[in-house]
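Sorry, can you check?
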Amino acid sequence: MVGRGRRAPVSPLAQRAGVDPVRLRLPEDPGGRWATVRDHLVERYGAGRAEALLGSGGLVSYDGVASGDEVYAAGRVYWFHRELAPEEPVPFGIGVVYRDERILVADKPHFLATTPRGGHITETLQARLRRELDLPELQPAHRLDRLTAGLVLCVVRAGDRGAYQTLFRDRAVFKEYVGVAAHDPGVELPRTVRSRIVKERGVLAAREVAGEPNSESRVELVEHRAGLGRYRLLPVTGRTHQLRVHMNSLGLPLLGDPLYPVVRAAGTEDWSRPLGLLAGVLAFTDPLTGEAFRFESRLPPGQWPR
């Protein structure tokens, strides 16, 4: 049986809107650049943000509200709340497929980010479930792309997260996706697609390059109607955007994909045109109890004709 992961230090600040406070651990300073905490904050966040944080009493440690004049001490830990900018609400509910005292399996709608990142902080699966279900320690054990809908395994207690994350790291989770794309009878299916995918920081789309494959997906046509195909997608590996890249490489880009084959300019979300990708099946053996689980999404595949 896998043990629970080591818990991070508990913050003296409560969550805000289901979002954890930021934990700041002062790094080593071999050059002696920072005499005080203020010196470090100014260099790290800029003078305006640093003074606003210190002036509002928003930076705290276990000893209470921090002063910018405190002597810099590498390794000391502080917490503060990030600024929560207004976000456009995602107008879809989150389904709960299963819940017990350890795990919760959610049906994430399209357009909703899994965890706080970038401009999506409060409008995320993690923050919304924490607020709606009063589960302050809830954390996803893995991530789905914001535009992909379907099953996400979450842990109810933060200390259990490591055990379930290990399942995904060790590829001990069976995952099956549903893809919706054009139907092309000239594309021979089923087939296994293998390629080398790279994703560069700051570049929205991943790309395939020459070299030893680092990704593998099985693609099968389940049915077709009205010029569209419903595909069963089985990822063996988990590269960023892997299924989207592989479907595009077959000449079958997923419906509603803003990155493949062409990156479209960001704009207002069109809730009626979701990405044709659904995480439809999730199966694994619970690392803490040995119980076998298999879950199926209750959501329809994006843009599949009903």
Observations:
- The chain has two domains: 22-80, 95-296.
- Residues 113 and 124 are 5 Å apart (CA to CA).
- The longest helix spans residues 37-45.
- Helices lie at 37-45, 47-55, 125-133, 161-169, 242-249.
